[in-house]
Design brief:
alpha/beta; eight-stranded mixed sheet; three-stranded antiparallel sheet
Length: about 475
Amino acid sequence: MQCKRCNTYINNPGVSFCPVCGNYLKEMNNNIDFGDRKVVIKKNSSSRGRELIIALLILGIWLVAVYYVVDKNVEKYFFIGLENKEVMSQGDVNSTHKEPLEGGGEEQPSEPTIPSEPTTPTTPTTPTTPTTPTTPTTPTTPTTPTTPTTPTTPTTPTTPTTPTTPTIPTTPTTPTTPQNNYSSLIGKSKSGYDGIVREKDQTHIIFDNQYYKQIDLTNKNEVLEIIKYDSEKQKNGCNSTVKAVEENIVSNYGITAVNMCEMDPSFAIELESVIGYIYNNFPTARNHLTNVTLANVTNGNYIASFMPIFTFITSKNASNYPVGIKTQILLNSKYFLNTTKIANSVSYGTSSGYFPPHAVRSSTVAHEFGHYLSYIALLKHYNTDEMTYVTSNRINTMYMVYNDFNAGDYSKIMIEEAYNKYVNENGNNITFDNFRASISSYAMAKDGTGNYIYDETIAEAFHDVYLNGGSAKPASRYIFEVLRSKL
């Protein structure tokens, strides 16, 4: 063999490099280059047979692995959770939270990230919980006209004061067991939580239990009954007054399941008042929200969050359809089990203009119900009012709703309609963005890519009108009226 670089003759065909110049002696497959001639090393038939057997074994192992992965991830076409619409504390404005699609689908954008906001100041030595004033003071005149020509007063009533005595039965009744026996169903927490409280301000409630491939779903009522079952089995040891409040909410407002177990009873009563105001003034909002629940939040620092779509249960047939979907409002236990923390956050958020004037701890839930009402308007826009029981022929509709709500397209349309109505009645004296910014800083929230989250404008407008009624900012009142007209 001769080196082509230095022309040295090499008698040992086993070497790979020239011992003189270090040149690599080219070897292609089984053909070894010996200068100008090639010696072909042939393999005998037994060697080829062994290699074929090994290749077939490897292929078999690979096919088994692929089958196992596909079988385990067949739910990848279902939603695990839609991007949450959240209300964050002023100090946590740079926090992010997202619920990805399970399995392969597209990834969701991160949750609102609001730049250039000040950090939370040092906690006061003795914080006090702000209370809703009986007569709201008139806020500073915004850049927009102080009062639009029409309407002078929104058609919604002003926020009722928090009742001192709830409408709670003297002795709470024992939660009724669903007619069908679902005790054989086993739920598995998506986050892996086992319900054991290990730290302060943590709830034992598991909000993200999922029941996959255990029952063949046949109708919506079946999904609702299993949601009730999942909720009721977690109420052992809960405060009796809080349980009574939960029962009132379920009975009076069409919410399927409520879990506020460890919450301070007076705080739970305040939330019942908020929910009562919303459902009494927006009767079409009934029977869409399946859950209001405490939640241990591990990947975000928001106060509360609206989750429109969460895959709760799948059928055990080959297609896994129909699927059962939960629509829920999550209450971060770090805040709702720590009254001092939430009071401080909301108080500072109000004084800094991050929230509308006169915000209180319970009104943060009104913000989430603003998202909820916007979502119902979106369902009507797509000519559907059903997202709890989804069959295979309706999955495309769910994806359209998901994509629109995630992008905020219909939310922006509603805001533009309100803005145009304002301009027609009051003159073009304010830009579209300044119209929105007049509500609060949070109304101008952006996502991680710098795009506006238009549904935060709607939620903050609703929050403002809920708190301040006719004294709310003109932009809030106009957006509120457009939202009402879509429900």
